[in-house]
């Protein structure tokens, strides 16, 4: 199956179509809503499913990366996965997209993980017969991993880390001594963007026209430089993931670009090696950058072909194990 990014243009996510026309063309049903989290913040949520998918193969809960949101490029991946027969759900992280919160400011990841658990649990509770999978890109990969560590191993039948932030590349870390001064800066200037890095979009998307498409996202956080509080928390998250990687027991797919200059491929490999999962797969793609969707067509098809195949195989395995070969009831 080809990825819908191939139908996009520099001017539009949906080519020459409106979103409604695009979804109709792909026969995908789409729903949007807001949930109120424990902090009384409005968190934007949405879902996709194929009109004719009955029975469904499973649930895929998606987590986007830093400065992104669930309604832009990752939405095309959601549509692609929905077309495989999955119920796909996603939310906008606090401070991103249509959700409440200071723009791009995440000084503590725990409330964000809480939001994901609250929403994803609500979806799974409505459809307990479906095997559920976590999919996270970049920072979203780290969050998905933390969600899986917070919950019982049986709750998730698979975890996909796509260019996940298991370690921040030394090429985008703040220069010494700024890195050493981060705790002080985070304490006194938590919400200030004091971390000096080159624009991450230029290091994430190989094709220039896709960088221009990213820039047209009306909900995009224009500064990719994290605040001092966020930068410090990102470094802490990476340390926690490295420390706790042996606790990972969920079936695991680690997919990373060899030439990723944003998130460290070696750190992702270490998570794979340390993970206690009996079913784990590592794919380091030569020449590939941080965002798989930003690659030329053949690179996109290679990366997402691995994701789609892995999902379908694990969903089939989980269904067979749970139901003795019986199919799921549809939603």
UniProtKB/TrEMBL annotation:
<dbReference type="InterPro" id="IPR051044">
    <property type="entry name" value="MAG_DAG_Lipase"/>
</dbReference>
<feature type="domain" description="Serine aminopeptidase S33">
    <location>
        <begin position="56"/>
        <end position="297"/>
    </location>
</feature>
<dbReference type="InterPro" id="IPR029058">
    <property type="entry name" value="AB_hydrolase_fold"/>
</dbReference>
<dbReference type="Pfam" id="PF12146">
    <property type="entry name" value="Hydrolase_4"/>
</dbReference>
<protein>
    <recommendedName>
        <fullName>Serine aminopeptidase S33 domain-containing protein</fullName>
    </recommendedName>
</protein>
<dbReference type="InterPro" id="IPR022742">
    <property type="entry name" value="Hydrolase_4"/>
</dbReference>
<dbReference type="InterPro" id="IPR000073">
    <property type="entry name" value="AB_hydrolase_1"/>
</dbReference>
């Amino acid at each position: 199956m080809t990825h819908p990014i191939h139908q996009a243009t520099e001017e539009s996510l949906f080519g020459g179509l409106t979103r409604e026309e695009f979804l109709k063309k792909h026969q995908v049903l789409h729903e949007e809503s807001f949930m109120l989290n424990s902090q009384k913040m409005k968190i934007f949520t949405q879902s996709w499913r194929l009109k004719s998918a009955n029975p469904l193969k499973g649930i895929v809960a998606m987590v986007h990366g830093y400065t992104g949101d669930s309604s832009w490029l990752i939405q095309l991946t959601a549509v692609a996965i929905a077309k495989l027969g999955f119920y796909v759900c996603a939310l906008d992280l606090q401070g991103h997209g249509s959700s409440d919160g200071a723009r791009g400011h995440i000084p503590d990841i725990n409330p964000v993980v809480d939001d994901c658990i609250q929403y994803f649990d609500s979806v799974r509770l409505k459809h307990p017969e479906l095997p559920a999978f976590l999919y996270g890109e970049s920072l979203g990969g780290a969050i998905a991993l933390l969600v899986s560590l917070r919950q019982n191993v049986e709750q998730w039948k698979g975890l996909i880390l796509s260019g996940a932030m298991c370690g921040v590349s030394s090429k985008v870390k703040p220069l010494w001594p700024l890195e050493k001064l981060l705790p002080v800066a985070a304490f006194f200037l938590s919400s200030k963007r004091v971390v000096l890095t080159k624009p991450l979009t230029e290091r994430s998307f190989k094709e220039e026209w896709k960088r221009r498409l990213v820039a047209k996202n009306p909900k995009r956080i224009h500064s990719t430089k994290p605040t001092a509080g966020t930068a410090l928390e990102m470094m802490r998250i990476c340390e926690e993931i490295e420390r706790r990687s042996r606790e990972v027991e969920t079936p695991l797919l680690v997919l990373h670009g060899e030439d990723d200059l944003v998130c460290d491929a070696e750190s992702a490999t270490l998570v794979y090696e340390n993970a206690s999962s009996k079913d784990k797969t590592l794919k380091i793609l030569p020449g590939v950058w941080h965002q798989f969707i930003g690659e030329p067509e053949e690179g996109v098809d290679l990366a997402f072909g691995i994701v789609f195949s892995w999902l379908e195989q694990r969903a089939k395995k989980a269904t067979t194990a749970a139901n003795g070969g019986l199919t799921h009831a549809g939603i």
